[in-house]
Amino acid sequence: MKSSLHVDIVSATILILSFQVAQVDAAPTNNQSFEKWCLQKDSLLVEPKKTVDVMLKKSGTQDCKLADMKLNSLSTLSLNGTQISDIKPLAGLTELTELYLGDNKISDIKPLAGLTKLTYLYLGNNQISDIKPLVGLTNLTELYLLSNKIADIKPLANLTKLTWLSLNSNKIIDIKPFVGLTNFTHLNLSSNQISDIKPLERLTNLTALFLGENKIGDIKPLEGLANLTFLSLSRNQITDIKPLAGLTNLMILYLGKNQVSNVKPIGEMTKLANLYLDGNQISDIKPLTGLTNLTELSLGGNQIIDVKPLAGLTMLERLSLGGNQIIDVKPLADLTHLKVLSLDGNQIIDVKPLAGLTKLTYLGLSNNKINDNSCPVKPESVCTYW
Fold this sequence. Notes:
Blueprint: H1 2-26, H2 34-39, H3 46-59, H4 64-72, E1 76-78, E2 98-100, E3 120-122, E4 142-144, E5 164-166, E6 186-188, E7 208-210, E8 230-232, E9 252-254, E10 274-276, E11 296-298, E12 318-320, E13 340-342, E14 362-364, E15 383-384
Parallel strand pairs: 1-2, 2-3, 3-4, 4-5, 5-6, 6-7, 7-8, 8-9, 9-10, 10-11, 11-12, 12-13, 13-14, 14-15
């Protein structure tokens, strides 16, 4: 009886292995046409079969030959959010110039190595760690690799046509491979582990640079990037912002959650429309007096007592001053464009000077020492006291 059972188990195992081998043998090679993948769909493993099904749906036909023709006529293909993991069936679509593969489960991007006509590639929100297959895609001008598992960016060093690169939310420490990529206009490196930004100092074509949530203390390498209009440095370890003084084209600047106390270097940035300085160690805001183009200013969580320097910033629509030591709000009385004003967590007693701010839709007043809880503006629902 035992002998018979053993034979049955062995036979079953051989059958299963034979079936799996047959499936592997049946799969086309990486660079073969979609038609061949499609014709052998029923013998494919689960993941490539799923990709073939998604591509058939995208083509609008279940006819393999017709689907192949339609897919090969495309210059742009979007498979965002289709939950695919195996992209080998895409390898033959060599006419593509734009490819969207975001929000999937992709880890192996070797099948993309032959798509050399690509100028735009979106691979955000996947499980990619190895980007060596991209080394030959030298026509790329825009590349999105956000929210993956990438640490080594050396394979990008040869992609000299890149103007737009997103690598936020990865595991990057070393950015030396960017030294020669001088065509960058937009670079997003937020939420990594970067401390040394010296490799960026010659990237003078940059207009937007995202470096928030890293480990940066020294920002001297940024002092020559005069074309910047957008700069994000929030949640770093920055104390000295003097290197930013010459960046007078900036329109949006994020410096929240650092250790900045002296904001004088910002004083000449008269094009600024949005400025975020929350969560620092600022007490003197006189250098901000001339920033009359500001529409949004965040100064919450600092050590500010005197808000008189803000009196002339009459274009402001949103102003955050929560978590400071403010008593007197009279200097804010003429900021009549304000729609949102946060004053929570201060030492304010009298809010009647705010009565003229009739455009307010939100006025935060919780955790103060206000002696009259009637809202200075109408309707009463604009004010929050808790």
